[in-house]
């Protein structure tokens, strides 16, 4: 299937642990993102990579570290997990349509629960 | 401050009825506005994308309008179906680069039989 995929879909872990979420897109897109959707369903961008280079790094604790080994992958590593990190994390990729327009495709999300 | 406000926060309608969701924004410099549909437990899916020069765009039973002067957009759903039950998110892009997006909090639509 042509898509943006994330693993795992669910992640339950204890405070203080370190965890990673993986994202892969087979759409051939150059730009990938990580978003956080909190309990109020508000989506906020965390990071954006273009051709493996970081282009957007919003105010996110440095416990969050994205890694892009190649254009098709953007992984998110989280150190010393805290209760407030519980959320759904979405990976996305995008392609330029024309001019400033681009189409964005989201993965299915990873629900992280920190206990 | 760049902001996107959506109303109502939630909406319940009967199957077959029409409805309109609202989006007001204060985002500069405006690039484009998009509406996403997010089913429960899924990622958002793009419905429409409009630049400032477009004032209406349709995608099946979904019709989005944009008034760049008043900085308002609406999403009209015609002949609603049970599968339209979802959150609808208005997103405004600013500047020229990908990723400069301001998300609204969404309107949760429930279509009842």
The N- and C-terminal alpha carbons of chain B lie at a distance of 41 Å
- Find the structural class of chain B using helix and strand composition: mainly beta
Q: How big a fraction of the residues of chain B is strand?
A: over 45%
Structural class of chain A: mainly beta
Give the topology string of chain A: H per helix, E per strand.
EEEEEEEEEEE
**Alpha carbon gap, first and last residue of chain A:** 34 Å
Instruction: Kindly state the number of beta strands of chain B.
Output: 11
Tell the overall outline of chain A.
globular
Residue windows where pLDDT falls under 50 for at least 5 positions of chain A: none
Q: Kindly report the oligomeric state of this protein.
A: heterodimer
Overall pLDDT of chain A: 91
Q: What is the helix content of chain B?
A: under 10%
Number of helices of chain B: 0
Per DSSP, what share of the residues of chain A sits in E-state strands of 2 or more residues? over 45%
Largest sheet composition of chain A: 7 strands, mixed
Secondary structure: elements and pairs:
The complex is a heterodimer of chains A (115) and B (113).
Chain A: E1 4-7, E2 10-13, E3 19-25, E4 31-37, E5 43-50, E6 53-57, E7 64-70, E8 73-78, E9 87-98, E10 101-106, E11 110-114
Parallel strand pairs in A: 2-11
Antiparallel strand pairs in A: 1-3, 3-8, 4-5, 4-9, 5-6, 7-8, 9-10, 9-11
Chain B: E1 3-7, E2 10-14, E3 19-26, E4 30-38, E5 45-51, E6 56-59, E7 62-67, E8 72-77, E9 86-94, E10 101-103, E11 107-112
Parallel strand pairs in B: 2-11
Antiparallel strand pairs in B: 1-3, 3-8, 4-5, 4-9, 6-7, 7-8, 9-10, 9-11
